[in-house]
Amino acid sequence: MKFIPFLKALWAVFISLFMAISPSGFPRVPHAKDFTPVWADEFDGDALDLTKWEGHYCSADAANPAVRRGSYWNTDFAAVKDGCLHIRTEYCPDGYKGNGKPGWYTCGIDTRGLFEPTSGYFECRCILPKGVGMWSAFWLISNSMAFNNSPGEVPGGTDGAEVDVFESAFYESKYPRRVSSNIHFDGYGEYHQSTNVCEPYLLWGDPYESFNTYGLEWNEDGYIFYVNGIETGRSDFGGACRVPMYLILSVEVGGSNAVPAADWTGGPLTPDCEPTDFIIDYVRAYQYKN
């Protein structure tokens, strides 16, 4: 069994070498002949399209922002400009708009109730935000996972899951160009189970400076993860989810009660850090052709 981690590490190196010769950020759908586009946001307007997105447990009220881990979440921190979505993470010493709640402010958005697929291919093209003690993510989750803290009627992940297409947790680490892809199921309580599927390293194009694409294929057999159209890992951990999931873009600050603290990304995020943007060029979704 000790040989398995070695093989996993060797595979990560092999994939990284392939990614190194792949055009950085070159968008292409794996197995394009099998898919048809069904949903997208190219962020070409001047405001967030509320027919496609809502705040992910965010507050739109500046005076009463939502608390999310080590920061406050307010939907004003998701802005569309120059053909991209910018999710800003910024320290507000007097609180946002003088609300008297000093701290870090950022947000998350999701497609809950607006677009909830049951399979397909999902891709985000983006530049990751710079910062230790924080991380951006593109992920999918089911209502059964988000709101339950015990196993459902069907043990495992078939009745609900969280699938992290990527999380950017390694800024200024030993290998800063890594991203992390993970699967969770059975809620977030005592029955919670999770696995790290892969941590691909982008040798071509700094992901904090240039656009790259991060994709997920979700089918009846499980999940396949991609960076710049190249497969980086696959898993059937818990079984493939059989219920709808919605898409999420978010930035998290490590900590609790809106107070930053050191966590798996390092940190804590301190007030003297510069504001930073998670810049998303597009999010696209495809379904299997009949």
Notable traits:
single chain, 290 residues, mainly beta, Jelly Rolls, eleven-stranded mixed β-sheet, seven-stranded antiparallel β-sheet, 20 strands, globular
| Uncertain spans | 15-25
| CATH topology call | Jelly Rolls
CATH class: Mainly Beta
Helix residue percentage: under 10%
Overall geometry comes to: globular
Distance between the termini: 41 Å
Structural domain count: 1
SSE string: HEEEEEEEEEEHEEEEEEEEEE
Strand residue content: 35-45%
Q: Name the average pLDDT.
A: 90
**What is the CATH architecture annotation?**
Sandwich
- The number of helical runs is 2
- Class by alpha and beta content: mainly beta
Largest sheet: 11 strands, mixed
How many strands appear in the DSSP assignment?
A: 20
Radius of gyration using CA atoms only? 18 Å
Can you give a write-up of this model?
- With 290 residues, the chain is mainly β.
- It has one domain: Jelly Rolls.
- The chain has two helices and 20 strands.
- Strands 1, 3, 4, 5, 6, 7, 9, 14, 15, 16 and 20 form an eleven-stranded mixed sheet that branches. A seven-stranded antiparallel sheet has the order 2-8-17-10-11-12-13.
- Strand 18 and strand 19 form a beta hairpin.
- The protein is globular, with a radius of gyration of 18 Å.
Briefly, what is this?
By secondary structure, the chain is mainly beta.
Topology of this structure?
Layout: H1 3-20, E1 35-41, E2 54-55, E3 66-68, E4 71-73, E5 78-81, E6 84-92, E7 103-106, E8 108-110, E9 120-127, E10 134-141, H2 143-147, E11 162-167, E12 180-185, E13 193-198, E14 212-219, E15 222-227, E16 230-235, E17 246-253, E18 255-256, E19 259-260, E20 276-288
Parallel strand pairs: 4-7
Antiparallel strand pairs: 1-20, 2-8, 3-4, 5-6, 6-7, 6-20, 8-17, 9-14, 9-20, 10-11, 10-17, 11-12, 12-13, 14-15, 15-16, 18-19
